[in-house]
Amino acid sequence: MQGVDSPNVKLLYDIYHMQIMEGDVIRTIRDNIKWIGHFHTAGVPGRHEINDTQELNYRGIAAAIADLNFNGYLAHEFTATRADPFVSVAEAIEICTV
């Protein structure tokens, strides 16, 4: 990304995968926000809902992203475990609305 150094080329930061691969998600986001154009969410472990049953604090992550004046996209990419997946999506939207 540094070599290209273009505002038209951005990375997808998959929070789920980055937690598994590196951890320290908020620091990594802060250090690299210039290169990020899109985020994906999913709970760790299991790639399920992003509520308090998971190891990541998505409200804290969303607040850190908002504090950086991010104006790209955040998409929920988890597999819902509830019978009505729309309940899980509504919960994720509420968690990430900061």
Q: Largest beta sheet: what is the strand line-up?
A: 1-2-3
Largest sheet features = 3 strands, parallel
| Mean pLDDT rating | 95
Radius of gyration: 14 Å
The tally of beta strands, per DSSP, is 3
Strand content: 5-15%
Report the total helices. 4
- Category from helices, strands and their pairing: alpha/beta
Detail the poorly predicted runs: none
The coarse silhouette is elongated
Order of helices and strands: EHHEHEH
* Share of residues in helices: 25-40%
Task: Provide an overview of this structure.
- This protein is an alpha/beta fold and 98 residues long.
- It has helices at 15-21, 25-32, 58-67, 85-96; strands at 11-14, 36-41, 73-76.
- α2 packs parallel to α3 (58-67).
Task: Give the tags.
3 strands; elongated
Helix/strand layout:
Blueprint: E1 11-14, H1 15-21, H2 25-32, E2 36-41, H3 58-67, E3 73-76, H4 85-96
Parallel strand pairs: 1-2, 2-3
Helix pairs in contact: 2-3
Could you give a short description of this structure?
The chain is an alpha/beta fold and 98 residues long. Helices cover 38% and strands 14% of the residues.
